[in-house]
Every structure is written in structure tokens, then in C-alpha cells.
Amino acid sequence: MATNAxxxxxxxxxxxxxxxxxxPQLKLNHLYQVEVNLKPPHGNANGVGFDREKWLFRxxxxxxxxxxxxxxxxxxxxxxNSYNNQWRTHLSEIINQHFTKPRINALIHALSIGDxxxxxxxxxxxxxxxxxxxxxxxxxxHIGMVALLGWFIxxxxxxxxxxxxxxxxxxxxxxxxxxAILYASLAGWSVSxxxxxxxxxxxxxxxLLRRPSYxxxxxxxxxxxxxxxxxxxxxxxxxxLSFMAVAILIFAFSGQFSRPNKALTFIKMQFTLLIGMLPxxxxxxxxxxxxxxxxxxxxxPLMTFLLVPVILLMLLVGSLLNGFPDIMVILVQWISLxxxxxxDFFNQFxxxxxxxxxxxxxxxxxxxxxxxxxxxxxxxxxxxxxLIMMFFGLxxxxxxxxxxxxxxxxxxxxxxxxxxxxxxxxxxxYDVGAAFESGFNMxxxxxxxxxxxxxxxxxxxxxxxxxxxxxxxxxxxxxxxIKASTVWGTEAKHKAxxxxxxxxxxxxxxxxxxxxxxxxYMKNNSSCVLKIEGTHTSILLTGDIEEPVxxxxxxxxxxxxDVLLVPHHGSSTSSSIDFIQAVEPQIAINxxxxxxxxxHPAKEIVNRYSQLNIPFIDTQSSGLIKLNxxxxxxxxxxxxxxxxxxxKKSPNKSSF
Length: 656
Known about the structure:
alpha/beta; 4 domains; eight-stranded mixed sheet
């Protein structure tokens, strides 16, 4: 993250390592002069997965870019925030010196200075699958625990040195605030810690003012102050999850916390949260871990009363001594190992999770009403009615494609391609998008979440049009998570997608029109060209073919199609006039990334389709494009249907 002092704007910059040239370490509190390629904030729009545009808008990012050159300035500066960052960086260096095991190192970083970047993808999936992601993100649970520690310390100090001028409750509240604010500073004042501190301040103020208040008073006052402090909190899933969790506990346990059996109350709380948070969890994550209550019953006490206090004590000593005592390092390592062992054990049972995509309003109504019915504190009759409501709320009827028809989903995978074809009983995926050295790939980011949303757990056919990264780079990641009965492609390990191969699914015909052979491999011009023909509509999927192959295909009798996937993302080397006229499409759909370095689609190509009176739709301006062939042909564009403030609305009107 970088800030331009001249225009007071915030930019998200990336710096990619070059071969045999490692990235230099940036110094804190120094100004840098950088040469960057800047682009407006942008991202993919598919209605599933991580919404990057929303995240950039939420964090006030004015532009994103890539660093080309960097030069340090002689000028340095100091501020309260810079001193805090120095402290956090210093502790991070000490942690790296004493904890060399990656998982332990990542856990200590997350629970001490709020840095979760050290976790790998496996650990992240483990936290999500076991319902413990909230434990490694410093939030209300951790801030509250530290404040409680300050409360007890205050009571102990008052017992040693009682003062009439400083009453015991005041001392306890002040020490609770101080420790909570210090911990929030150590965590870098993330959004979740800001919310937690505000709620804690409100609770303390009610007690200091000695005014009678109910739990709902504290909750509602905190909610108002959090939104006044930062109205964009409403865009964070964590905001809704945290406030709803507290509201559910207040609603379900009002007047019951004074019961002597605290252990039983704690157990009931976990299962109450499981039921009460089910509608919101399905809305945000589309899944719910059914073993989360059992896992949290064990992990929350281990985390809050043992691991975090010991880590904080170690950090305090380390700040004073410029190093951690060996005995404390050994103790933290041992506790952390037990924590990771338990997580790995529970991770074996992640199949005990509820995965559902709730779309209709009546489903949410049934789920919410059923959850309230079940967790209402009073002894109401016929509780089983709540279970029946939730059961029917989870039922999501599938709108099957009629026989001889199909649906095509052109996914927004940036500068790449991925098209999902559905018939009545079969699913075909044409290309999967790119994968990058950082580990980020379009299979995990877009394709798999979308397949899960469509309740597709198996692919009958995967077609990898050719071997370019932007088309087949994420294939390995995809096939790790979902099975494909047949993989067509251009590599020796694939079934060759040669012209003449065809089959029929549910009255829909699939035919490969190119290539004629795969030896020699001609890169773009060896792309698998697939034609799909339903009762009223046909689509031609062209991969990255260029003019030589287009010329040959234009002489083919059955090349015509109603919908044309624009070849090679709209490159100037494709979409020849003869080819377009031979296909005679009623609409052209292009897949390209916003602000891509190749400047696809080329202006001359867009103009060419326009001159031929063929509507031109692009994923970079439309997001996900969905084409239904029944009852009439209809094209739906995500950006047009969901014109959120952080998205660009597509100007295209798409139907024919």
C-alpha cells in the first residue's frame, strides 16, 4: 500500500521479482520515489468468490499498479503510526529468529501482530473447514480476553494498594481499556480490532457512568458508533457476523448468564450460534461447518486462556529484553503444536459441513424464522416446527435445462477464458483460466466457487482448447478439487480434440471443427474449436485461432452459428471479415480482462463487428455473461443486473 502525499490518494502497488534479482527490503519511515504503471481499481464480476472491486472500494484504494523503478529518498519521517509499525516490525523479526517452523511462525504472527500472510493455502482451508477462522483473526474474542485480563490485574492491584480516590471498578475498566488498545495497536488496528475496541469502550462507559443499561443498549450504541466511525463497515462480512453473533447470544441468553453452571452455558452458546448464524453463514460463505461447535468448545479455551496470554507475555518480555527467553519460546512452541495437532485432527471431519447456496427470498425467510423459533429463550411449544422450516429453507430446487436446450456461462476470468455449458443432465467446461507463480489461480478464485454455486460436483467433459496459461493454466488446480470424466485437449495426456469428433447430450450436439491434427503443435492455431447446437441456438467456441485457421474454417459448410466466441480475445490477428461473414453470428461474446496489457479487444475488431451490425459483448465490461436458450434466447450480464456503486455498469443491452 502506498500513499501519494501530493494528491492524498492511496494506491495498491505490486512489485514482481525478476530472474536472479531478489526484491530489496523496504525501510520503514522512508519516502520512496517510484515509477509505476497505474490502472483504475478493477476486478472480476461473477457474483461468487472474492469481490476485489468491493474490497478496493471499501479500503479507499484510488488505483492499482505495478512498480517498475524504485528509489529511496533521503527524507525520513516519524508519526504515531510509524512508531507503532517499527514496534510491530521489530517483534516480527524476533519471531522469525526464534520460531523457524513455518506453521508455528505463521500462528505466532497472526495472534501477536495480526499478520496472517504467513499461512499457506492448506492452513487457510483448514481454518475455514473447521470453523476456526475467527480464532486466528484478532477480533472481539481476543480483544475481550485481553480486556478481561486487565480487569483481573486491576482487581489484584486494588487489593494490594486500595485507594479511595480510584475505585476498584474504575481501575479495572481503565486497565482493561489500556491493554485492549495496546493489543489493537500491536495488531495494526485492523477493521475487526477497531470494531472490538469501540464496543469495549461503550461497555466501559456504561459502567463508569453507573447508569442502568441492558445488553441491547450496549449492542445498539456500539453499532451506531461503529457505523459513525466508518460507514463502509457495512461492506464487511465480518461486521455482520460479529454483531449478529452478539445479538443472537443476547437474544437467546438474556437473564441466563447468572446460572451457576457456566460450563453448560458455554456449551449451549456454541450450538446456539451454530443455529442462529446458519442463515448469515450460508449467505456469506455458502457453507457451514457442523463440527464447529465441538471444535470451538476445545479450541476457544486453549486459545484465549492459554496460547494468547503466553504469547502476549512473551512479546512484552521480548520488547524489553530485545529477545525471547528460551523457556517461553519452548512453552509457546509446545502449546502451538498442540493447537495445530488438534486442528489437523478435526480437519479429518470437514466432510461434516453443510454446503448450500440460498438464492430465493422465501428460503431466507424460512431459515431466519426457523432459527429464531429454535433459539427463542422462552419454552415455546412445538420446537420441531423450527427444524422443519430450516429443512425446507435449505431445499433449493434445480431449474433443469429442457431437453434440446443448453445454458452457456461465460465466466469473467480476466485476461483468459472459461465457459461452462449445461444441458439437461450434463456439464462441459471449456478452458479454466490462468494460474500464477504466486499461487493465485482462476480455478480456486472463480471457476470452483461458481461450480459450487451451480451445485455442480462433477464435470462430464473438460476441454482445454490449447496450452496457453490464460486458457489451461489452472487445470491442475481444478482437477484436484473436482473430477472430469473426459479431458479433451492438445497434450498427449488428453483425448485429442480433432475435427470430426462429435457426440449428443440431451438432444444437444457437440462437434469439434478444428484442428485436423496436433503434430506439429501450432499454439494458438491448434486451438480446439467446438460447436454446440441446440434446437434454436448454436454457439461456436473458438479458443485463440487466428486468420489462417479462420480462412480454412470459413470454407466449412457447417461453420455458421448464432453466437460466436470472439477468437483470441479480440486480437487484431483474428476475426477476419470472411470468417465473421461465414459464421453469420447474431451476437459476438468476447472474454478479456480490464486494462489488459495487450489492449484486447482491438478497436479495429470492435468496429468490424459493429460495421456488420453484430452486437459485441465483453466480459471486461459485463462481468459474467449467461446465455439461456429457453424459452427464448436471453443474455444476462452481471454488471448490468447488479450495478453496485463499486462496479462499472455495462452499457450493453444483450438479447436477440
